[in-house]
Amino acid sequence: MLAATVHGQDGGRRPLVIAHGLHGAGRNWGAIAKRLAQDGRRVICPDMRNHGASPRSDAHGYPEMAGDLAELIAAEAGGVADVLGHSMGGKAAMALALLHPGSVARLIVADIAPVAYGHAAAQRAIIAALRALDLAGVSSRAEADRRLQPAIPDAALRAFLLMSLEIGAEGPRWRMNLRVLDAEMDRIIGWPDLPGRFERPVLFLSGAQSAYVRPEHHGAIRAQFPAAAFATLEGAGHWLHADRPAEFIAAVSAWLDPPEDHEASSHRPAMA
């Protein structure tokens, strides 16, 4: 079963499961999870397969990831949970809703659509840089950052990736199965032909400065998620939860615990 960190205690609200994106880990969502848990809900942050402390596998597709999440929800959330997924985790959450609909009450998909994207080469280049990084003698992330800079000039991207570098007594190691993520990249950036429709509410929450969810994707979204609503966070890109954390938390909280009149809520972002 997926390794997971649990924040908060049962206060009568449904548990929330947060599925992270590619190269991430459940612990990356700790600050967001702690804030959401203050409302009296358990927030469960798993490491997705081939990430963090979760099991390794040669398969890394969305049906497999959906099965992992369903198993976790059965064991840790009484069989049904609200689910929030970002990027790869958003696709896994959508697959969960389609293949195991009884596991999902309300769904939030953060900055991703059920479509195939075309950036496999860019993602493989990142993985190649991580695999090629000389970790000999590295005793800090600062040193790893210095060595990684020529291959990945973007400081923010390096900082995110290096959160998955473990500096331990046995030497540094990546907390990701880079070999499998590279081999399965076409499945990760793609979207499988999954059956069915998920009829319950879904919020597609995107960064206004991101191009991952475009108007031309709305038809594909509504074909399988007919109750979809769309909202954007101004000033945010693909990592919208990091760019605008307060606004992100407010939007998620409003969607999970809606007032009787959604439109009267001052915390809810404008709907598209």
Write up this protein.
The chain has 11 helices and 9 strands. It has helices at 30-37, 62-76, 88-99, 120-132, 141-148, 155-162, 178-183, 185-189, 218-224, 240-243, 245-256; strands spanning 4-7, 16-19, 43-46, 81-86, 104-110, 165-166, 173-174, 202-207, 228-233. Helix 1 (30-37) links the parallel strand 2 (16-19) and strand 3 (43-46). Residues 260-272 have low confidence and may be disordered.
Topology of this structure?
Elements lengths: L3 E4 L8 E4 L10 H8 L5 E4 L15 H15 L4 E6 L1 H12 L4 E7 L9 H13 L8 H8 L6 H8 L2 E2 L6 E2 L3 H6 L1 H5 L12 E6 L10 H7 L3 E6 L6 H4 L1 H12 L16
Parallel strand pairs: 2-3, 2-4, 4-5, 5-8, 8-9
Antiparallel strand pairs: 1-3, 6-7
Relevant terms:
272 residues; alpha/beta; 2 domains; seven-stranded mixed β-sheet; two-stranded antiparallel ribbon; 15% strand; globular; disordered C terminus
- The name of the CATH topology of the largest domain is Rossmann fold
Strand and helix order: EEHEHEHEHHHEEHHEHEHH
Could you tell me how far the N terminus lies from the C terminus, measured between alpha carbons in angstroms?
38 Å
CATH superfamily of the largest domain: Alpha/Beta hydrolase fold, catalytic domain
Strand order of the largest sheet: 1-3-2-4-5-8-9
**Fraction of helical residues:** 25-40%
Query: In one word, what is the shape?
Result: globular
Query: Pairing-aware structural class of the strands and helices?
Result: alpha/beta
The CATH architecture assignment of the largest domain turns out to be 3-Layer(aba) Sandwich
Domain module count: 2
* Overall number of strands: 9
Radius of gyration: 18 Å
